[in-house]
Amino acid sequence: MPPSAAPDGDSTKVWVRRILREVLAGREDPEGFFALCLSVLGHQETRSQYPSHIEPLRAANSSMHSVLTSIYKEYFSKTEDDELELALALSLVETKDYELSAPVHEPQLKQPGGRRNESGSVWPTSEFQTQRRSPIQPAEAASGTRNNSPQTGPSPKVCSPRTAVEPEHNADAWTPAKARSASCHQVMEAGDVDQSEKPKRPKKRRQRRKCAAQQVVGLPRAPSAAAPVLLWFRRDLRLSDNPALVSALKVGAPVIPIFIWSPEEEEGPGVTVAMGGACKYWLHQALSCLCSSLENIGSHLVFLKSETRGSEGGASLRALQGLAKATGARTVVANALYEPWLKGRDDAVAAALQKSGVECEMFHSYCLRDPYSVSTEGVGLRGIGSVSHFMSCCRQNPGAALGAPLDPPTTLPVPAHWPPGVSLETLGLARMPKRKDGTTIDWAANIRKSWDFSEGGAHARLEAFLHDGVYRYEKESGRADAPNTSCVSPYLHFGQLSPRWLLWDAKGARCRPPKFQRKLAWRDLAYWQLTLFPDLPWESLRPPYKALRWSTDRRHLEAWQRGRTGYPLVDAAMRQLWLTGWMNNYMRHVVASFLIAYLHLPWQEGYRWFQDTLVDADVAIDAMMWQNGGMCGLDHWNFVMHPVDAAMTCDPCGQYVRKWCPELSGLPDELIHKPWRCPTSLLRRAGVVFGQTYPERIVTDLEERRSQSLQDVALVRKEFGQYVDKRSGCDLVPLPPRLVSEALGSSHLDGGVATGGKQFLLPVITRMEFKHQQEDPDADAASNPYNAVLKGYVSRKRDETIAFLNERDFTASVMHEGAQRRERMESDQRRLEGLPRGPAPRGRVRRTPTAKDRFSVVPGGAVASLR
Ligand SMILES: Cc1cc2nc3c(=O)[nH]c(=O)nc-3n(C[C@H](O)[C@H](O)[C@H](O)COP(=O)(O)OP(=O)(O)OC[C@H]3O[C@@H](n4cnc5c(N)ncnc54)[C@H](O)[C@@H]3O)c2cc1C
């Protein structure tokens, strides 16, 4: 019996006993059993009934009974505070009533009082917050081509709210000579700017900030001829909480901030699409804002572009050596990056500079935990890939304390001579294509309207979230029709916001959101995985799945990319991505499930499209998520999102679809996610013509597509039996050398162990439905008791509600259409026969539902509570 069919009464007992037998036979994990109970019985019932369900085991198999009991106890004993503790343990902040210790390796700005201000942010509210967002042009979304986007004028202010100057102009107008003459003047002005911002900052905070700044920035403001420090900005485009910047100041010499654009080095050895179009555009704007911020404190950002590829030593190294020679710099400081190829580059740069007598220091700040310091020692490898396993590793092997965020400096000492650089435009990051007639195709117009690219914008977003969305985050973060998540991912990616700052502010928020804090653990997990599997962005981790029968249908891929699949929820999300460079996590799951489980296209296609179009495209996170979604990662998603029914969770009234697919806006709530179910009369009234105003569905039999996908997986798992664990039925993944060393008790930091070329295989989390399908490879998806299509994403109970509503809506629509047709025929007949019009139909005609309507008949009121 499928789990969804066993919600209560005696059948529940039977069902639980059946799954318990699976556990005893070793075919199901105890944790998996508990998760299934939660999913099928729901939270309350599991809490009350679970102990009695497992009671018979107490005598028969006491050890299993105690394992199952401890899982239960651990789960239900968790309070919000425990969750918070987990997050804190991850962050390794040594707290005592929020008095933070100094970091071990990092320079620390002492903060009198030690405690952050209530609001937790030093940034003035940006215009972005108050300025109404210009509506995205839906027509453009529907046309689906970046190339056809109408050209718009210059963007509204996208630079730091401190500067009222167009960033591009600043960058253009900059010359070293101007910098020298401007810097002292600007230092004075920086003070003025601070004054003007006074009312927006809490007073206490302001005073502390001044003290802190004076401690570190008690440096000469006049140009100095001393050997300068090169401050190498990469993905840390901020002034606040920037350890490399503070360390540069501590040297007590002039600081030369630089940025080197070297796309070949970013890309790494495989196809990473590390810098897609949207990301490059963001980078351009963020650099422009950083440049303005530096100018505000009397400094300047020197841009350098890498020379021709392939010449000896690497582009960044050559640029740094040239700069060191030209300026006499003896020190280079930067914040570390963790992509293996970038770390390799940085190690080589540091070693080569060292040889020529230049010190190069890297600081940790991009993640909460340095991924190279994470170890599985004391935890083992079971459950690897899940965030709880990762957090256990962090707890078991704590690293350096995270410390408190650092305040931004108010001035930077300038050198006597600025080295020459190129203009920001020369880097070509925001270059727009041209039409044949010479006009520019401004595909980023809507991205510009949607974001404030400055560091101030990052803090404003976070602050806005912590005042509002965070209160809905725990339960409603999946909603696509409401701003319930933080939207800080691009700022985190480009380092305009440090994760430490984010964690600190989240902890300080009135509503302490454990789920939100755990998200930072996901981010760190992704970087850890990338350090373990450097080919994560292009090579499937589970060998058999490379041989899967993936589709090569380019029309399907293009329809998915352009938001023209005929499934409104998928289309709305893909259009939002195209126009704004972002969509929330839930929608990313929906579109990824659709690409993989229903279109059978390889995950790499999804990954590459995301990398090109997301403004937060992050090689580590994107690759980990797509590998998992594509069934090849360490952590199989144990669910597949249904392209229609998932809307019950994320867009129950259809507002999200109405926004991004305006051609469907006239459809009623119940049918907007499945327009093909609409009676013709309703479609006509709403102006929907399939194939003209809105695309036909590119695949129609979803069940059949899913079954095919399952059968294909069963086939390759059978074919590559050496990669399936006979006992547990789990997939086996080749272990990377670092994990082998740890498993054999030797730290990778000590050099690891030699495996003599032997490959070690590790059983990893595997979807139950795959294990079951193995027993009957040709069975269809519907008959698989572990069918992973979680329609509402929340619980099986909600799925049943959805099934009920689907049935009801469909029946009602058919009856309604039939009645209308009969009435029309009768009245035509009377007219033809010259008879007077018949009596008005008795009873109430079914009115077209509107967005304001509530569902009237809902079992248990489940859907009503969604609204
Ligand atoms: C197929 C797929 C691809 C993705 N690609 C990316 C990507 O390229 N870049 C990216 O930053 N996120 C990616 N994510 C993760 C997640 O969707 C985004 O981080 C999130 O939607 C960003 O919105 P937010 O800032 O409002 O998130 P919030 O929910 O407010 O979370 C706060 C921060 O936590 C981190 N975070 C949240 N969820 C995850 C997650 N699942 N994994 C790792 N970190 C997480 C992000 O840095 C995020 O900004 C992907 C998810 C999926 C399913």
From TrEMBL:
Compositionally biased region (Basic and acidic residues): 818-834
Query: Any binding details for the cofactor?
Result: Binds 1 FAD per subunit.
Q: Which GO terms describe its molecular function?
A: deoxyribodipyrimidine photo-lyase activity; DNA binding; FAD binding
Supply the source organism for this entry.
Takifugu rubripes
Q: Name one GO cellular component term.
A: cytoplasm
Which co-factor is required? Answer: FAD
Site feature location: Electron transfer via tryptophanyl radical: 550, 603, 626
Give yes or no: UniProt keyword Calcium. no
> Which Gene Ontology BP annotations are present?
circadian regulation of gene expression; entrainment of circadian clock by photoperiod; nucleobase-containing compound metabolic process; response to stress
Q: Which residues bind FAD?
A: 473, 485-489, 516, 616-618
* Biased segments, Polar residues type: 119-134, 144-154
Domain of life where this protein originates: Eukaryota
Q: What is this protein called?
A: Si:ch1073-390k14.1
